[in-house]
């Protein structure tokens, strides 16, 4: 642990943005080579694939993500990040591991060390990947499209963990059979209008009024078109139009996030958005060529589905190792994770599970209980998990799961 925590502090202090994880990838690739893995760098731009063959047996893949976020760190930690970068927005910002990917990478290295040290206890092929650009939802797909399942041994099982800002002691393992995280769609609507003077609205078709009608009507897609038993979210996060008090613009722009679980639910929501936008424009009297333009960003982040039986087996094994009080089933969330891509690329052949490890410190739990102080969330500039417990639990959980799936001499 002392060496791992030194690595953690180094990773935390030097985060890199999505698809820019060059130094991080090189640093960790060097460690994997030293452990005896066959290491390939530059997979999916900055991803790293490490393979260790240890006789006949199953192929198990373990994954950690590497990228930081454009967040100015405010934790006050002695090893807080002072890094800056300029993302696609063009605005220079601080960079921080505000989602805990530094704990994921460190636990990943710990698991690799454990599996090398206990090589006599497992038999098969171990594939360990360091994935870029999870925060963009693009890194897993980039690695798959760059031959992850063709250039390297194709896994039968894929496992990964994510730290969590949960109301549970640090080191607690949470798991969710079935749908665990949501489809994430980004939708843009360009609302057209006929501009003019704010004093003479009757001579215009106001895109602000039309856009407002679309925003309100979109709420009925979830409340009246989607089953109340099928979780769904449509949130309009941005509405931009106009430049002056007394000018009616000729255009408004909406930015929307859409969350769902199944492919069918996703399609229902996206079709509903298109229908509402068109219907409200027709009500406003706009011609066919002035209908709103609805754009769905591709690729999107698909929902993460943990194979139920596989997840229950892994949870039972964790409970036997760590104790029942440290392993619990948690509800699904509407956040997104591109870990989903590894199963989705070959759903008939690959079983996968991502699980949570609470990083909530005792001080955070006490403040929550005694003062009602909310826990800092992931992506918060104040997120400083109990890294030692997350790393130790993650390393042992990943390594023990791999050994369970690849027992020596077939068990």
Note down, in words, how this protein is organized.
It is a single chain. This protein is α+β, with helices and mostly antiparallel strands and 411 residues long. It contains ten helices and 18 strands. The chain has an eight-stranded mixed beta sheet with strand order 1-2-6-3-7-18-8-17, with helices on both faces. It has a four-stranded antiparallel beta sheet with strand order 12-14-10-15, covered by helices on one side. It has a two-stranded antiparallel sheet with strand order 4-5. β1 and β2 form a beta hairpin. The radius of gyration is 24 Å and the shape is elongated. The model has no long low-confidence stretch (mean pLDDT 97).
Brief digest:
Residues 181-278 form the Peptidase M20 dimerisation domain. With 411 residues, the chain is of the alpha+beta class.
Can you give the helix content as a percent range? 25-40%
Which structural class do you get from the secondary structure elements? alpha+beta
The biggest sheet amounts to: 8 strands, mixed
Q: Order of SSEs, N→C? A: HHEEEEEHEHEEEEEHEEEHEEHEHEHH
Tally of helical runs:
10
Provide keyphrases for this structure.
alpha+beta, eight-stranded mixed β-sheet, 411 residues, 10 helices, elongated
Layout of SSEs?
Elements: H1 2-13, H2 22-34, E1 38-43, E2 47-54, E3 59-65, E4 84-85, E5 93-94, H3 101-117, E6 124-131, H4 139-145, E7 157-164, E8 173-175, E9 178-181, E10 183-192, E11 196-197, H5 207-225, E12 233-241, E13 247-248, E14 251-260, H6 263-283, E15 293-296, E16 304-306, H7 308-322, E17 327-329, H8 340-344, E18 351-358, H9 362-371, H10 387-405
Parallel strand pairs: 3-6, 3-7, 7-18, 8-17
Antiparallel strand pairs: 1-2, 2-6, 4-5, 8-18, 9-16, 10-14, 10-15, 11-13, 12-14
Keywords: Hydrolase
Domain Peptidase M20 dimerisation: 181-278
Organism: Qipengyuania psychrotolerans
């Amino acid at each position: 642990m002392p060496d791992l925590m030194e690595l953690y502090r180094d990773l935390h202090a030097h985060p890199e943005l999505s698809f820019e994880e060059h130094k991080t990838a090189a640093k960790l690739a060097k460690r994997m080579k030293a452990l005896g893995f066959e290491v390939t760098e530059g997979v999916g731009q900055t991803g790293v694939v490490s393979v260790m063959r240890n006789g006949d047996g199953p192929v198990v893949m373990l994954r950690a993500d590497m990228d930081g976020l454009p967040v100015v760190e405010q934790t006050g930690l002695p090893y807080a990040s002072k890094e800056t970068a300029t993302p696609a927005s063009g605005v220079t910002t601080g960079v921080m591991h505000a989602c805990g990917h530094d704990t994921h990478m460190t636990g990943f290295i710990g698991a690799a060390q454990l599996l090398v040290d206990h090589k006599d206890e497992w038999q098969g092929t171990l594939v360990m990947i360091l994935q870029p650009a999870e925060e963009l939802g693009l890194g897993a797909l980039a690695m798959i499209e760059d031959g992850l399942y063709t250039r390297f041994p194709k896994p039968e099982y894929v496992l990964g963990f994510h730290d969590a800002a949960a109301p549970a002691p640090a080191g607690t393992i949470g798991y969710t059979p079935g749908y665990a995280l949501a489809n994430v769609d980004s939708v843009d609507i360009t609302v057209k209008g006929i501009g003019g003077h704010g004093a003479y609205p009757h001579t215009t078709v106001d895109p602000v009024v039309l856009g407002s009608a679309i925003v309100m009507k979109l709420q009925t897609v979830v409340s009246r078109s989607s089953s109340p038993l099928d979780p769904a979210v449509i949130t309009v996060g941005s509405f931009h139009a106009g430049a002056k008090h007394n000018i009616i613009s000729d255009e408004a722009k909406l930015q929307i996030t859409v969350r769902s679980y199944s492919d069918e639910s996703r399609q229902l929501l996206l079709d509903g958005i298109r229908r509402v936008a068109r219907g409200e424009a027709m009500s406003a009297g706009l011609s066919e060529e002035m209908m709103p333009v609805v754009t769905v960003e591709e690729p999107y982040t698909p929902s993460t589905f943990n194979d139920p039986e596989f997840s229950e087996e892994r949870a039972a094994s964790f409970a036997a190792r760590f104790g029942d009080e440290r392993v619990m089933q948690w509800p699904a969330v509407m956040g997104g994770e591109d870990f989903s891509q590894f199963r989705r690329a070959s759903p008939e052949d690959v079983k996968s599970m991502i699980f949570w490890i609470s990083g909530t410190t005792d001080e955070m739990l006490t403040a929550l209980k005694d003062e009602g102080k909310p826990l800092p969330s992931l992506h918060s500039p104040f997120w400083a998990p109990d890294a030692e417990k997350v790393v130790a639990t993650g390393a042992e959980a990943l390594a023990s799961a791999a050994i369970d799936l690849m027992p020596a001499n077939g068990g």
